[in-house]
Amino acid sequence: MRDLLLQCAGVLTIVVALIHGYLGEAKVFARARIEPERLRTLIRLVWQASTIAWIGGGVLLIVVPRMHSELARHWIVATMACVFGFSALANAWATRGRHFGWMALSAVVVMSVAGY
User: Which regions span the lipid bilayer (predicted)?
Assistant: First the structure.
């Protein structure tokens, strides 16, 4: 059951990351006016870097049960719980709780910690 919780957390993480990347391109940057253009490109790449990082975190959560190492399990879950916990808090604060992202990221944290 613990392993299944971690794997579900990993899949949810990847789904959230893909939605984050899509919404950034389709909603945020489609309407944003950022000058100069090179700064716009930089901000866009930093946005998508977090998307890629979250996907990487999701992959780690999916494969950690196969690592057969309690130490790896401990540090991957602890690190991902901190990363996604901070992301959830930042999202809730920045959107005043009106965006579903903080709830999805909070679910990832709860599932990850429960799967520890």
Answer: 45-63, 75-93
DSSP 85-105: HHHHHHHHHHTTT-STHHHHH
Rg, Å, the chain Cα set: 15
Give the tokens for residue 35.
């000058």
Per-residue pLDDT of the chain (116 residues; tens, 9 = 90+): 889 999 999 999 999 999 999 999 998 888 888 888 889 889 999 999 999 999 999 999 999 999 989 999 999 999 999 999 999 999 999 999 888 889 999 999 999 999 88
- pTM above threshold 0.85: yes
Q: Are 115 and 5 in contact (CB under 8 A)?
A: yes
Query: How far is residue 60's CA from residue 16's CA, in Å, rounded to a whole number?
Result: 15
Residue 106: which residues within 8 A CB-CB, separation 6 or more?
84, 85, 88
Inter-residue contact 57 to 84 (CB < 8 Å): yes
